[in-house]
Design a protein that fits this description.
The complex is a heterodimer of chains A (about 625) and B (about 240).
Chain A lengths: L7 H9 L7 H12 L4 H11 L3 H8 L13 E6 L2 H5 L2 H12 L12 E6 L11 E3 L2 E3 L4 H12 L18 E3 L12 H9 L24 H12 L11 H10 L5 E7 L8 H8 L1 H16 L5 E7 L7 H13 L17 E5 L9 H8 L23 E5 H13 L1 H5 L9 E8 L5 E6 L4 H8 L4 E6 L5 E4 L17 E6 L4 H15 L5 H18 L5 H17 L3 H5 L2 H9 L1 H5 L13 H4 L1 H7 L16
Parallel strand pairs in A: 1-2, 5-11, 6-7, 6-9, 7-8, 10-14
Antiparallel strand pairs in A: 1-3, 3-4, 10-11, 12-13, 12-14
Helix pairs in contact in A: 3-4, 6-7, 8-9, 8-12, 8-15, 9-10, 9-12, 10-12, 11-12, 12-15, 18-19, 19-20
Chain B lengths: L1 E5 L2 E5 L5 H7 L23 E4 L2 E4 L10 E3 L3 H17 L14 H9 L22 E3 L9 H8 L6 E4 L6 E4 L16 H5 L5 E3 L12 H4 L2 H8 L10
Parallel strand pairs in B: 1-5
Antiparallel strand pairs in B: 1-2, 3-4, 3-5, 6-9, 7-8
Helix pairs in contact in B: 2-3
Classes of the chains: A alpha/beta (about 625), B alpha+beta (about 240).
């Protein structure tokens, strides 16, 4: 009798992913669909059939927030915990739902029906508070909407049957410029790139030799398009601002079997949601930019392949994006002989992330694409020469590919006409927080913070977090600064805080975020972010002292000097900015003495009080201020 | 032969060597914890952080380049290393007087050698169960410094994959390759490289505890800065057989 395979689903999933270990994260996501979590035998079986150690598979599964190795509720409710969600009342709403459904935050209900917890920013800041239920996003939470959700949960209605209005997400586009108003038809940028090499002669010969010697007058399409991207001055929109043309050129020049084009749609920076809107409404433009990049890298002469790394929180965008890819294949804009160009073959597959901010770092993203834990690599070598599977790889932000498509279609001069000389073109901002009109704003680079504040209807503004927690927290004295790489660089987040907000609480939220998202690879960031979290909680609890500020400075120095990647280098930015610009926000919370222990004897007796059922004055120690 | 400057001294190197490999081979010590001469550099502990042409970077993963100016023995960098050692001591449960590894422990030896005099930070007081399931080997997960040496040794030398790291941030932890989570249910052997390579007191052999009395152990005889030079291969192609 043939041996029965106890876990047939593992085989199905393996077949679906071609037994390819680089697709491990995708396999784990699919396997989890069955029960909501990954039981130990499933991990064992998967590892055995993939021929890798069990510990490796478990190690990968345990890295990602949305993969579970312990039983979870049938409904898993995760409240987005960005500061903007909190400002919109998320904490009270979470408590409301917990009370209503008799469940403790962070624990599975006794009947296994549900669990309620928090998660990092879900990118719904302009229509928060947001939550994810079994990975699907629901915006604009209110008591009424939570009542509806609670009914559905108690009735055990499958998620597919939940009313669609709950999941409706607005675009909230408030200001358009050349990108959001692009008017390109699908394929136009690709055809422009293909035509570029054939048409007009260049102003000067590219090589030293003259066209009269029989050398083609115009450079071939890929080089001409690359030159156009370089001349446009386009810089990466993910935050670092590296010149896109130089990145493409370095990758193009690197030897390899296949050149890879990777779109970083792991939009994890709290307060950033412009990529969500681009992927919702402008997916064609994103894929168009990636295809132009593939043309520059491969030029129809060598293999290229594309990936879009979609953050797990945007899972609901997967089907529309796949449909867009399918349509583009039908239209001859992806696949073989794109736009009729012989040998120009390129296709794009989508990888869905599983809840890890650090995967927004390009080398961590590549590790995750390869089916590993998302840990940033040692560099050099850089991804442009040794990226995905050790091959030359371009990783660019969603918005960068959109801008590149614009440049390919309309030319560098047209593009350079917008923005500043050092920061050409436009930038999409995700505006949220204390303002009348949160949403997406597209501005030419060089716009001042003040102009944005006026346009979005912000009043009595105390501070703006530009570019998210890893960016800069600025005060009113700096509102005339310009959003541009040469002044205030930004990846897009723009969170507004009015005078009623406590900046210490803003910073505490960000400190917790980094502690939660540190990958744990290097000592300074792994231990430093956790220590920083403990210090701000100590201060929050009213037990801070001068010595804690010294500890903060020490941790900041260590992380800045020795952390492995950008996450660790920037994790202390919010704290540093508060100490520099909003010092009273932290100073007024400190006790005046030099040292105050974190240990609170009275609080430590809470369990003893609970056991004895007492909470009267006699069961408490006198407060320290009352002791003589 | 190519060379670079380490704190003013000329260090020759062969192509493919990293800064720490060339420095150790030339008899110059750079403090390190997760680097081990027999394994591909990992670059996670950051104790070997140097300034290369002014830029802070881990010496173990930095390819040696001709003309590079590397600073290591500076007040700033040794302060950094002391703080990192303190952070590691605070992260795990490193109570040297009750640890069998005392005297053979790289973390402890680094503490002494760098002159770490105080705890410096509040401890996290980990509470992870020890694993005594295996007849010959004991695991105390509370002392792990996440250097990944056992993971690397088990995969690369033993060909087994007994260990892996799991979790994220401060939750990052060592796991063993068994559905039960118990070391007894893996194919580890006491003779494995993975057992020998642990720099701290996580992976311990049973029934040999304190056979060598404290005071006569590895780092009791000489500080780690001297011991590391003695252990360092003088040729880059030196590999574990």
């Amino acid at each position: 009798m043939p041996e029965q395979d106890p876990y047939p689903r593992v085989d199905d999933v393996l077949a679906l992913h071609r037994h390819d270990p680089t697709r491990l994260v995708q396999m784990l996501r699919d396997l989890q669909e069955a029960q909501g979590w990954l039981p130990p035998p499933v991990i064992t079986e998967l590892a055995r059939k993939l021929g890798v150690s069990r510990a490796r598979v478990e190690g990968v599964a345990a890295f990602y927030s949305f993969l579970h190795l312990q039983p979870v509720g049938y409904y898993r409710v995760l409240f987005s915990d960005n500061i903007t969600d909190r400002m919109q009342g998320s904490q009270a709403l979470l408590e409301y739902l917990c009370n209503k459904l008799w469940v403790e935050k962070g624990k599975v209900s006794e009947d296994g029906l549900l669990s309620i917890d928090t998660t990092s920013c879900t990118g719904l800041c302009d229509q928060g508070p947001g939550l994810l239920v079994n990975g699907w996003a629901i915006p604009r939470l209110s008591r009424e909407r939570l009542d509806e959700i609670a009914e559905l949960i108690l009735a055990r209605r499958p998620l597919a049957e939940w009313p669609q209005h709950l999941f409706h997400i607005e675009d909230n586009i408030c200001r358009r410029d050349i990108l959001l108003d692009h008017n390109l038809t699908p394929g136009e940028a690709i055809r422009a790139a293909l035509a570029r090499g054939l048409g007009t002669a260049p102003a000067r010969p590219v090589s030293g030799r003259s066209w009269r010697e029989g050398i083609p007058a115009a450079p071939p399409g890929p080089v001409a398009t690359l030159e156009e991207i370089k001349r446009s001055g386009l810089r990466g929109r993910g935050g670092a601002g590296f010149a896109t043309g130089l990145k493409w050129e370095a990758c193009r020049n690197a030897p390899g079997e296949t050149h890879y084009v990777v779109c970083n749609a792991d939009e994890g920076e709290p307060g950033t949601f412009k990529d969500r809107v681009l992927l919702t409404r402008y997916a064609d433009l994103v894929f168009e930019g990636m295809t132009v990049c593939a043309y520059v890298l491969g030029g129809g002469r060598r293999p290229t392949h594309g990936f879009l790394y979609l953050r797990g929180e945007y899972r609901y965008l997967l089907e529309p994006l796949l449909a867009c890819l399918e349509r583009r294949r039908r239209e001859g804009l992806l696949g073989r002989d794109i736009c009729g160009e012989r040998g120009f073959d390129f296709d794009i597959e989508i990888h869905v992330g599983a809840g890890a901010y650090v995967c927004g770092e390009e080398s961590a993203l590549i590790e995750s694409l390869e089916g590993k834990r998302g840990i940033p690599r040692n560099r050099p070598p850089y991804p442009v020469t040794h990226g995905y599977l050790g091959q030359p790889t371009v990783v660019n932000n969603v918005e960068t590919f959109c801008a590149a498509a614009l440049v390919a279609a309309r030319g560098a001069d047209w593009y350079r006409a917008r923005g500043t000389p050092d920061s050409t073109g436009t930038k999409l901002l995700s505006v949220s927080g204390d303002c009348e009109r949160p949403g997406i704003y597209e501005y030419p680079f060089g716009v001042t913070v003040r102009e944005v504040l006026e346009d979005c209807g912000a009043r009595d503004t105390q501070a703006v977090q530009v570019s998210g927690p890893s960016g800069s927290l600025i005060d009113a004295a700096e509102f005339d600064r310009r959003l541009a790489f040469e002044d205030l660089p930004t990846a897009g987040a723009f969170m507004v805080f009015d005078a009623s907000r406590d900046i210490f609480e803003v910073v505490r939220n960000f400190v917790h975020f980094f502690a939660h998202e540190s990958c744990g690879f290097c000592t300074p960031c792994r231990v430093g972010t956790a220590m920083m979290r403990n210090v701000v909680d100590k201060i929050h609890a009213g037990r801070g002292a001068q010595l804690d500020l010294e500890e903060i400075c020490r941790l900041r120095q260590v992380m800045h000097l020795a952390a492995h990647c950008g996450l660790g280098h920037t994790a202390c930015n919010p704290m540093q900015d508060m100490l520099k610009r909003f010092r009273p926000a932290i100073q007024r919370r400190l006790k005046s003495l030099d040292f105050e222990p974190a240990f609170d004897l009275d609080a430590a007796l809470a369990r003893a009080r609970a056991f004895t059922g007492r909470d009267d004055a006699g069961a408490h120690l006198p407060a320290e201020s009352e002791t003589p | 032969m190519n060379s670079f400057l380490l704190d003013g001294a000329e260090i020759p190197f062969e192509p493919g060597q990293t800064v720490i490999q060339a420095a150790l081979a030339a008899g110059h010590y750079i403090p390190h914890l997760c680097y081990h001469p027999e394994f591909v550099p990992h670059g996670s502990c950051k104790l070997c952080t140097v300034r290369a042409d002014g830029r802070p970077t881990a010496a173990c993963t930095l390819p040696a380049q001709a003309g590079l100016k590397v600073e290591s023995e500076t007040e700033e960098l040794n302060d950094l290393r002391r703080t990192l050692v303190q952070m590691l001591f605070a992260e795990g449960n490193h109570f040297c007087p009750s640890c069998e590894k005392s005297g053979n422990c790289v973390l402890q030896a680094l503490g002494y050698d760098l002159g770490v005099m105080t705890a410096g930070f509040r401890h996290f007081f980990l509470d992870r169960p020890v694993d005594a399931s295996h007849p010959d080997i004991l695991l105390d997960f509370n002392r792990c410094v996440l250097c990944k040496l056992c993971v690397r040794a088990s995969e690369e030398v033993d060909g087994k994959g007994v260990f892996s790291l799991a979790g994220r941030g401060i939750q990052r932890r060592l796991i063993v390759s068994a559905e039960s989570g118990r070391l007894a249910d893996t194919d580890i052997a006491v003779t494995d490289k993975a057992v020998e390579v642990c720099p701290v007191g996580v992976i311990l052999r049973k029934r040999v505890g304190f056979r060598v009395p404290i005071g006569r152990r590895r780092f009791d005889a000489r500080p780690i800065s001297a011991q590391a030079l003695e252990d360092a291969p003088r040729k880059p192609e030196h590999k574990h057989e």
